[in-house]
Write a structure and sequence with these properties.
14 strands; Jelly Rolls; alpha+beta; seven-stranded mixed sheet; 5 helices; 2 domains; about 300 residues
């Protein structure tokens, strides 16, 4: 995979080492087992990077890896001088876990020195369990003003949730009139959740420039140039293809939304049943206690 598909950034400044674009190793993840790269492969002085807190603020150092939606982050391997990190997933930084590094230079007589400070090397091998994660944030929990990353490897795999990002640009914007016509002529009954979602899409589209207005403006310009008759066939063919693609998109969205609502209703019903069972058990216990108290009296 091209390295341009991944972006590495940090809230601290890079004070030494290579550029962010060269500071990582990309590796295709095995679909069945978690393979940890050898240490000599993970460590590379040409990919080492030094991050410094130049603003002298109490902000923890964070390293963010963002992958192009075609792929997902399956795991990452890293060697740095920080013994403890926190890992967050997604653009909203959903907390995943707190990890402790494995000290890899325990047998050394002395730790590596840098600016009269001792540096220990800690290794991390972390799997990303959630499917479709394209962004992770690593927060280094240390009081040091410098964080040294001796090597980092990003293991990636095809992203099953990135299908919507692979749609061709030729689809263009949604034509509201065509969508309404297809839904009106369809024999399939629209469910209530899908109807709400359709209204939501219509509201968003009406707030911007709809493709219906654009199509009307284009036709007007063609007529003014006496070129409408010549281009009418090509436009009709293009609109037909776009309508088919849009219809498939809407059908897929309706099925997906219906399935999600059914799953959500099932979870809610299960929780309600559990609450009712607990309440019933508590009431039975209270009634038994009252009956015993009445017998004693």
């Amino acid at each position: 995979m091209n390295k341009n598909y991944i972006q590495l950034t940090s809230n601290w400044s890079r004070s030494g080492g290579c550029d962010f674009s060269e500071a990582f190793l990309l590796q295709t993840a095995d679909p069945d087992i978690f393979i940890k790269p050898p240490l000599d492969e993970l460590l590379d002085e040409n990919r080492a990077i030094l991050l410094s807190n130049t603003k002298l603020e109490e902000e923890k150092c964070e390293l963010c890896a963002q992958l192009f939606p075609h792929y997902k982050i399956q795991a990452f391997n890293m060697v740095c001088n920080v013994p403890k990190i926190e890992i967050f997933q997604g653009p909203l930084k959903e907390y995943k876990e707190t990890a402790y590094g494995l000290l890899i230079n325990e047998t050394d007589d002395e730790a590596v020195s840098h600016n009269n400070l001792e540096l220990h090397c800690y290794r991390y091998d972390v799997e990303v369990d959630k499917s479709g994660v394209t962004e992770i944030t690593i927060r280094f929990l240390t009081a040091l003003s410098e964080v040294c990353i001796f090597g980092i490897c990003i293991q990636f795999a095809p992203n099953p949730n990135g299908i919507t990002s692979l749609m061709p640009h030729s689809v263009g914007r949604i034509n509201v009139e065509n969508v309404q016509s297809m839904l009106a002529n369809s024999a399939r009954k629209t469910t209530a959740p899908a109807e709400k979602y359709k209204k939501f899409l219509e509201t968003i589209i009406k707030c911007g420039n709809s493709s219906a207005a654009e199509s009307s403006a284009v036709n007007h310009n063609f007529k003014a140039l006496n070129q409408h008759g010549e281009s009418e066939g090509r436009l009709a063919h293009t609109n037909l293809n776009n309508d088919k693609i849009q219809f498939e998109m809407i059908r897929y969205l309706m099925d997906h939304i219906d399935l999600r609502f059914k799953e959500f209703e099932s979870v809610i019903q299960q929780r309600i049943n559990e609450i009712e069972q607990r309440q019933s058990a508590k009431l039975d216990k209270i009634l038994n206690m009252l009956e015993k108290q009445q017998k004693r009296d």
